[in-house]
Amino acid sequence: MSIASKATFGLCFVVSVGIIGYVHYKQAYDRKQLRLGITRDIERQERRKAENVYILQQQIELAKELRKKQAIEGDNT
């Protein structure tokens, strides 16, 4: 083999290994990002659920107060 063909073969080999390595790295990185996205979505859903429960408790308390006021006003009339 001539020096030019050896250099071409070596260059093709290095480029191929680089491309394969990059693809594997990129796939691993993308999988990690997908997992992090799922984790963030679950945390966001739990936060929203907790906020909704808190708002519901506030509404229940306000409804109780309103019923008491209406009962007091109903007794006075």
UniProtKB/TrEMBL annotation:
Keywords: Membrane, Mitochondrion, Transit peptide, Transmembrane, Transmembrane helix
Location relative to the cell: Mitochondrion
Protein's GO biological process: mitochondrial respiratory chain complex IV assembly
Keyword Membrane included in the entry's annotation: yes
Transmembrane segments: 6-25
ATP-binding recorded as keyword: no
Family: Belongs to the PET117 family.
Protein name listed in UniProt: Protein PET117 homolog, mitochondrial
Species this protein is from: Dinoponera quadriceps (South American ant)
